[in-house]
């Protein structure tokens, strides 16, 4: 059993530093450092890559927030200033991936950069940053799962429990499940696949999209705060779409590689 010590790293009068923002920054910085090292290894310009990452992170943050806000518009419509309070949590990774990924592609095309090579370079950094950032949910006491009595159960204070579950004290730490899954995806991409898939541009990014989505689909089934599309969980629908895109894309790349070998 474990419990959050609270959302603040430091609080002095009106000045406060939250774990959520700090961990987000650490994930971005570590992922950027790793991607720049990979760019150097591949003979690409790390400064150009940094520009892609900066624009991708900025628009990804906006996209993640807007995605979350739109699904919770009933709450934010009467509290418009809360839309800006990203340090309190409320970022949807799928919105960030769509906005940040699209920005990276458009920027790379406009600057005549090798789009798929850049996406592959950044692919291992994404799950590593997510693994670190997920711990922000722990400190905020959010993104937890259904009640449980397992040894690794997570204590949630009454204020953060849904009204219908106030009698329960312990819940599945789904933030932890996703953090561990992201670490596994990072290890697979960086250790096992990074160099093997290097000749096939775009393959590593597709593997990231597919592997992350498989884990997210099952972990989402445990969460009690899912964004909903009618009767279904939006993250599970998006995960299935991304898995299909990943499998289809990898199949197309393999077929293209076989055709090039024959010709």
Short description:
With 263 residues, the chain is mainly alpha-helical. It has helices at residues 19-41, 46-71, 73-76, 93-110, 115-122, 125-133, 135-140, 174-193, 203-220, 234-262, and strands spanning 2-3, 8-12, 15-18, 154-155, 170-171, 228-229, 232-233.
Mean pLDDT: 94
SSE sequence, one letter per element: EEEHHHHHHHEEHHEEH
Q: What does the radius of gyration come to?
A: 19 Å
Q: Main sheet: which strands, in order across? A: 1-4-5
Helicity, in percent?
55-70%
* Poorly predicted spans: none
Number of strands: 7
Number of helices: 10
What would you say this structure looks like, in words?
The strands form three sheets. The protein has a three-stranded mixed beta sheet with strand order 1-4-5, with no helix packed on it. With 263 residues, it is mainly alpha-helical. The protein is built from ten helices and seven strands. The chain has one domain (2-205). The mean pLDDT is 94.
